[in-house]
Structures are given as C-alpha cells and as structure tokens.
Amino acid sequence: MNDFFDAIRRFLLDYLPKQRCLSENTILSYKQALNLFVAYMRDEMGIGTTDLTFSRIDRDAILGFLAWLENARGMQCFYPQPAIDGTAVFPGFCRTD
C-alpha cells in the first residue's frame, strides 16, 4: 500500500471517528467522496491506483474532480458538501499527520 492509501485508511479509521468524533454516516460520506476522487483520477486522468500519490494531486486535479462531479455525474450546479469536505479536509489531515 502506498502512502496515499495508507493516509486514507488512517483518516477514515482513526482521525474522523476518534479525533473528530464524526458519525458513521458522515464517515461513509467522506469515504464515498474519496472513492469518487480515486475513480476520477483513474478513469479521467489515467492515473491508476498504484500510481496515485500525493505528488499527482494538485489544484487542477481537485477542480477537475469537482467539475466532473457536476458534469459527468449529473450533479446540480453546486458542489455537494461531502465531496468538498472529503477533498478539503483530507489534505489538511495529511499535512499534520
């Protein structure tokens, strides 16, 4: 497992439930948003899970993901809060962990 997926595991299993005390449903929303991000990177950006590292994720990747949610996934003209939270809170967790 690479550092990126190890950080996701720690984020979902340790940080969110134990330090942030978030509910199982909220954690599930974060997990779904991160899974969608991984699918976007794989399917749209051509970056497979073995090649997905922090160095491959930049501002353009996040903005592209949010646009993909809106256009390809049929979301409304606003960005769904769990997707924003999942992609915004996770990098902050990784910087402090």
Which keywords apply here?
4 helices; mainly alpha; 97 residues; globular
In summary, what is this structure?
This protein is an all-alpha fold and 97 residues long. It has one domain (3-96).
Summarize the helices and strands and which ones pair or pack:
Blueprint: H1 3-19, H2 24-43, H3 59-71, H4 81-96
Q: Would you kindly provide a written description of the structure presented here, covering whatever features stand out?
A:
The structure is a single chain. The protein has 97 residues and is mainly α. The chain has one domain (3-96). It contains 4 helices and no strands. Helix 1 runs antiparallel to helix 2 (24-43). The protein is globular and about 35 Å long. It starts with a helix and ends with a helix. 18% of the residues are buried. The model has no long low-confidence stretch (mean pLDDT 83).
